[in-house]
Amino acid sequence: MDATSSADGGTDAGRGPVPGSAAPPNPPVPRAVVAALMVAMALAAVDGTIVSTAVPQIVGDLGGFAVFSWLFSGYLLAVTVTLPVYGKLSDTFGRKPVLVAGIVLFAVGSLLCASAWNMTALIAFRVVQGLGGGALQGTVQTIAADLFPLKERPKIQARISTVWATSSVAGPAIGGLLATYADWRWIFLVNLPVGALALWLVVRHFHEPSRPRPAVPPRIDWAGAVGIFASTALLLTALVQGGVAWDWLSVPSLALFGASVVLAALTVAAERRAADPIVPGWVWRRRPIAAVNLALGAMGLLMVAPTVFLPTYAQSVLGLGAIPAGFVLSVMTLSWPTTAALSNRVYGRIGFRFTAMIGMGGALLALLAFPALPYPGAVWQPVLIMLVLGASLGLFQLPLIVGVQSTVGWSERGTTTASVLFCRQLGQSLGAALFGAVANATLASRLDAASAAGLPGDLDSVSHALEDPGALTVRAADTLRRAVDAAVDHVYLGAAAAAALALLVLLVVAPKRFPVAEEPAGTAGAAGKAGTTGTTGGR
Q1: What φ, ψ does residue 337 adopt, rounded to 5°?
Q2: Is 218 helix (H, G, I), strand (E, B) or coil?
Q3: Which of 152, 222, 377, 498 could form a disulfide with 301 if both were Cys (CB 3.0 to 4.6 A apart)?
Q4: Rounded to whole angstroms, what are the CA distances from 180 to 61, 183, 229, 385?
Q5: 515 φ/ψ angles, rounded to the nearest 5 degrees
């Protein structure tokens, strides 16, 4: 019988301390390694926010206004579709080579972006950046679980959350300063010294424990990797461009959706026959992993409401400027890491599942409160809601990530972590398409029913009217503001439905207690395959 462990630490007789006994403490993780993880994650975290503020300067220099959205969509596609591949590679060949490759690829992509001569080249180089970004996001999260025992993981995960929170505030400021007082190309060049620092810290200070060589040399499932990449890329392209570049029921949309379904079916068939598949079947057969995948996919859906639509609401309905509107959103990123850091005190008492249910219950109430706000309302009202939403999601996400990582050993942790992040990213892409359609339908309906003169004649003209509301009559401006208010309200109701779905998944699919895989004393995260690792108890 294999050694087992509970959430509190003991192991079977004959293989370590008896159940209930205190295991010898793990050696402290060097600060330089923690710094390496945070700097590496900062590369990916700052990227999206720092680029967004320089779009006008980029378009003014390179042109390509009609396709500039692919600066973000192309990066998102590359990150999302490569997450499962990098997760499997890190389980097969180790975390360090995958992380080093990701940093180098991201830095090379940044250098290429800075040298772009037109918008097409810049989009292509952003995809190269995304290929590195996928390795950074998944591998850093996995290494954090490898290095820290269960009781200490909330601390490092909270620090990683703080990196994202800081980036959401600092990124736009840095990007605006560089675009205004230097040149937009510097928003990519600044990645080079940061990447060099991350690379030096990882190579110099991060050392993985030696592991026995497998009897059979590992084989990479290239057919599965290509199939996942192609089918997901087609699906996300259809979602990103549908309703924007072409109608949802047009030939391009139907062709992309149909091709993605066919490729997905072929990929599943290939994965079932593969000796060592990129996405193994156990990812969906094990209840804890399947439940967390679905729940975080639903969280990705609901996150679109605040991150995409709240700034528009703050500017168009509340009349705030771009910077104050950004701070309304940033409140959520301040409360999120705070509750994440304290979540271990909650799930240590009531378990991962119930802690996450409390967090998502709070998020559901916050999302439902938003449509109840008066029109136009005061600034403090959405700020308070975002504060509660961030605190609730910190209590929801971190326990699930820590919980699902604790159910597997080292050799399966990369794949498990990547599947969770992949589902969250896919949920965000689905949410952007779905809630974008909801907002557009509401706007079109309200404007068609309005009788005020001077209103935009179509949705394409709404953005121009929002940028210059002074050009409208008082009545038309008020009608447009009310239409935007109704559209954002409907989006938040949709986000509340996604929160309810996450709660239902946790209630029906997730086990009451997550099994905790053995982690030998002194080598946190160094357990063998979870398929052969026993468990006792859980959280």
Answers
A1: -65, -25
A2: coil
A3: 498
A4: 13, 7, 37, 33
A5: -65, 145
Cβ-contact 188, 113 below 8 angstroms: yes
CA distance 41 to 136: 6
pLDDT score recorded for residue 23? 40
Residue 212's pLDDT is what?
Answer: 62
DSSP string, 329-351: HHHHHHHHHHHHHHHHHHHHHH-
Instruction: Name the amino acid, one letter, at 174.
Output: I
Give the 3-state secondary structure of residue 538. Answer: strand
Which two structure tokens, joined as six digits, stand for 227?
């199939």
Summarised one tens digit per residue, pLDDT across range 192-233 is 999 999 999 999 888 877 666 666 666 777 788 888 888 888
Give 359's pLDDT tier (boundaries 50, 70, 90): very high
Find all residues with CB under 8 Å of 268, minimum gap 6, and list them: none
The DSSP call for residue 372 is G
List the beta bridge partners of residue 515: 538
- CA-CA distances (angstroms) from residue 321 to 49, 168, 332? 17, 17, 18
- The SS3 call for residue 117 is coil
3-state secondary structure of 488: helix
Q: By the 8 A CB rule, do 278 and 225 touch?
A: yes
> How do strand 535-538 and strand 515-517 relate by DSSP bridges?
antiparallel
Amino acid at 307: T
Place of tokens 């907002």: 439
- Joined tokens for residue 23: 């295991």
Q: Is 178 left (phi over 0), alpha (psi -120 to 50) or beta?
A: alpha
- Backbone torsions φ then ψ of 218, nearest 5 degrees: -65, 145
- State the DSSP H helix or E strand holding residue 391, giving kind and residue range, or none if neither: helix 380-406
**The total number of residues written for the chain in this structure:** 539
- Ordered DSSP codes for 160-215: HHHHHHHHHHHHHHHHHHHHHHS-TTHHHHTHHHHHHHHHHHHHHH--PPP-PPPS
Question: CA 353, CA 291: separation in Å to the nearest integer?
Answer: 10
Asked if 153 and 34 count as a contact pair (C-beta separation under 8 A), the reply is no
**pTM exceeding the 0.85 threshold for the entire prediction:** no
Q: Give the CA diameter of the chain.
A: 83
Measured distance CA(518)–CA(498) in Å, rounded: 34
Helices (H), 94-149: 95-114, 119-147
Amino acid at 319: G
Angle at alpha carbon of residue 90, lines to 393 and 133, rounded to 5°: 55
Which helix (H) or strand (E) segment holds residue 321: the answer is: none
CB-CB contact of 387 with 499 (8 Å):
no
Give backbone dihedrals phi and psi of 303, rounded to 5 degrees, phi first.
Answer: -65, -20
